[in-house]
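Crash report, auto-generated. Payload:
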Amino acid sequence: MYTAQIIVVVILFVIALLWLLRKYIGQSKDSNNCGNGDCGCK
Amino acid sequence: MARSIKVSLIGNPNTGKTSLFNRLTGLNQKVGNYPGITVEKKEGICKLDRGIKAHILDLPGTYSLNTTSLDESVVIETLLDRTSKDFPDVAVVVSDVENLKRNLLLFTQIKDLEIPTILVINMADRMKRKAISLDIKQLEEDLKTKVVLVSSRKNMGVEELKKAITDFKSLDIEPCVNASVIDPVYFERLRKAYPNQLLYKLWLVITQDVNFGKIDRNRDLTDLKTTSFEIKSEADLKRLQHKETVVRYQFINGLLKKALSIDTATAKDLRSRLDRILLHKIWGYLIFFTVLLVIFQAIYDWSGYPMDFIDESFASLSSWLSNKLPAGPIADLLSEGIIPGLGGIVIFIPQIAFLFLFISILEESGYMSRVVFLMDHLMKKFGLSGKSVVPLVSGTACAIPAVMATRNIEDWKERLITILVVPFTTCSARLPVYLIIVGLVIPEGSILGGLLSYQALTLMLLYLLGFATAILGAWVLNKILPINRKSFFVMEMPAYKLPILKNVLYTVLEKTKSFVFGAGKIIMAISVILWVLASYGLGEQYTNAEQIVTEKYESENLSEKDLNQKIASHKLEYSFIGYIGKGIEPVVAPLGYDWKIGIAIVSSFAAREVFVGTLATIYSVESDGEDELTIKNRMKEEVNPILGGPLFNFASGISLLLFYAFAMQCMSTLAIVKRETNSWKWPAIQFVAMTVIAYASALAAFQILK
Amino acid sequence: MSITIAHLKRGESAIILHFNEIDVPLKLLEMGCLPGNEVTVMQSAPFQDPIYLNINGTHLAIRRETAQKISVERYG
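Recovered output after restart:
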């Protein structure tokens, strides 16, 4: 049970990390041109 | 059978186009962006009779089809490209009854494109008061189309418009002005060179290059350069465009002489009376200053109550969850990582809502243009335009829409300087950092008999500091940038209007929603990462933390609670994040910060508002999870590891405030600046300069005050 | 010597005579600033810059530099 939870947490961690990296580094090719949309422009 | 009609709403700025859009679509709308460019795209659906649906596209406001900005070029691209999915079955040109003459210019251009076009004359409710009478029959006859009188404010005529849209097939598509008279020989040659193209469309495609480089000389014109067709010089084309405008106005003036009558005696009214006060050489400025003051007081004071409530709710939700869920990493991740992190963003909602509320009221009422007018002369001296006031004021919400709002500044140098200095204005993402620090280090109490608290005053000073730095920065840039200024400036002074509640609320709702969801995702991801880094570690110091700490404090006879606290702190210090933080510490220690603040600052480079959430996550990992402390109380208990005493005292507080005031900690803004200036050069300069200023001033502040 | 919009006082009206295309943005023309049209000075900011005009029924503001380039003829 405990190990299973650890695995879930690690997976979440990796997803979060990849998502952030893609958002900030792989930005050149995206179609959303609102910066990152975390402001009122989207 | 259900059918759908594509409709484009087109019109001059300030004609109530957006209100009409809201009337037609209600909440059935979505706001996005045009692919490849940062122009807002508003679409919505309107149900018509017989199960027909109208897809309505609200195009950016423009005065004509001669584009001078990115926003305007969207209009012409939509109308020229018949293969585009946005190409309308019917265009609805929205005009304002008081400015019909000017509004008709755009109408006649669109009509020349042979698109079925309905003319909406908006604000018809004002006609009686302004003693305006219109001969609709005559208008319909000469403009060769359907004319609908509408009042989007009073909800008049909207049904008639819907009916006109449904029957769009019956509209005449014949042009009402013959543009080719401006140079018949040239136009005839053009027609011969491209026999199967619409003549006026060709003309538009050719002339757009004069003003704005973005439009591709359409696929249809690719062979333009290879044919023997003579290309006119830019000056010639510009002269012809001027001539075209004159021809169109001749037609319009002739028509309105027959169809429109205004009793000018009653027309002078609210506008001139209000202008006399609001543009007064002394009162005008005083009123503007008071308006700013009220806005800041509201953001700080009135939003305090809902914010406290949100802060406490999240703290108790966290402890409730950690009690209810079965113990384990997932429960900890939720109660120590994600929920405190999210609380750090939800807490902004009241302020963001207030800020957008005020900004949209100022814009809707027509007051914003008066501010531009008042400020232009002053701003010009600093290398800015009066129009820079709008970005600088809306920069208090967010630098991103502010950078985009610079588009209507005619002069490139003024525009570039505005873009470069806008991030100095206090955006809403700085607000939570300011609020929490100000609350911790500035004493309670008030001046002016309780009217203005010290804390509100500090906040106002911070806003003024932001503006002052922006202006000063502009002055420096104006001196050093080797670009010529043309000093063009044209601005419409719209009529005063009572803001429509519905429009204001839509704006507030839309902006708040996108702020929360956009930033929420980032904060969620960052809090997961931070929590994992803070909760796990390697090495003996981490794995044997309990043993080491117990042995260390054996003689002191600590209570179990205190001991657990010490163990948690020790673990945090030797977790992954502890190592990273210790690495940063030498850099931030001279500013009066510990490694935890260092981590918060580094993660703030993704977005400033992450600061509070990061500290919240770090502190809740450290606490034993049972006590229900708010973020602010936890910060109060922190001790400076080197100097002793509270970590957040006056000196380090001011230092932090200054750091956040100046630093360029927003990747989104950098991305948008890159896009708007079309090079990495400007955002890079911006980033380096701002970070250096931030570090230097924070250092100076702490070393002097400590 | 001809006078320009910049010479007009508050409340004064005149007829636009001519200007050079290079000195005036197209946008101003689109808003109705054309030879033959009437212009009235509504108000001006401190230092007479910018100037708030009513041209042909449209209310707009332009800078003094531009106003100096548009020659006009006073009424009467």
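Post-recovery validation: Strands of chain C lie at 3-4, 13-18, 38-44, 51-55, 58-62, 71-74.
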